[in-house]
Amino acid sequence: MMKSKSHQMILTMCVGAMLMAMNVVLSSSIFSIPVPGGHLYLNDIVICTAAILLDPITAFMVGGVGAFLGDLFFYPTPMFVSLVTHGVQAVVISLLSHRVLKKHPVVASGIGVTLGAIINVVGYSLGRAFLYSTPEYAWVKLPYQILQAGVGAVVGMLLVFVFGVKKLYDKTMKIPQNP
Q1: Does residue 112 contact residue 124 with C-beta atoms inside 8 Å?
Q2: Using one digit for the tens of pLDDT, what is the confidence trace for 47-97?
Q3: What are the CA-CA distances from residue 176 to residues 12, 48, 97, 165 (Å)?
Q4: Quick one: pLDDT band at residue 176, thresholds 50, 70, 90?
Q5: Cβ–Cβ under 8 Å, residues 163 and 157
Q6: pLDDT tens, residue by residue, 122-152
Q7: Ordered DSSP codes for the chain
């Protein structure tokens, strides 16, 4: 079956919407791990996975807007911190995954998720210090924020490159060329 550009755009929107919904659900305390001072959320896995697969704009929508909506529904205080931090994180990962070292996508994505994890940790640490008017709260959460970002980066890379999500995505999105 031949897929047109509009068909591909619809598929991209559907994949983006599905990943955004997963981000929102994984932003809830239902799917989190309680830790001192809050929760460890699993939505970083979806954000890293989406950013490796998708273009920067769709990655921003999944990462930034998805995290924003998750916070809006479940815990609104840090929603703008989530929008900016996860949005920038997703864009950086996507840009590096798609535009740097094109012959080495695993290396490019590895660099991307590493920088994305740093953006995540720094963004949330500064955001917490500002929102709660105390740097001490950011320090308490720092080890857990590093763990959350690291788990998201590693599991996202494993899903995409080891467990075949990228192959499935590329097969689904491929537009055959006319002979």
Answers
A1: no
A2: 999 999 999 999 999 999 999 999 999 889 889 999 999 999 999 999 999
A3: 16, 28, 23, 20
A4: low
A5: no
A6: 999 898 888 877 777 778 888 889 999 999 9
A7: ----HHHHHHHHHHHHHHHHHHHHHHTSGGGSEEETTEEE-SHHHHHHHHHHHS-HHHHHIIIIIHHHHHHHHH--TTHHHHHHHHHHHHHHHHHHHHHS-TT-HHHHHHHHHHHHHHHHHHHHHHHHHHHTT-HHHHHHHHHHHHHHHHHHHHHHHIIIIISSHHHHHHHHH--PPP-
- Give this prediction's pTM: 0.90
Rounded CA gap, 50 and 91, in Å? 10
Tokens, residue 90? 């997703």
What is the mean pLDDT of the segment spanning 16-45? 90
CA 50/CA 44 separation, integer angstroms:
10
Q: Which residues contact 178 (CB under 8 A, 6 or more apart)?
A: 2
Whose tokens are 């740093």? That residue is: 118
**Cα(63)–Cα(84) distance, integer angstroms:** 9
Please give the C-alpha separations between residue 16 and each of 20, 30, 59, 103, in angstroms, as whole numbers.
6, 22, 8, 25
Nearest to 86 by CA among 60, 107, 104: 60
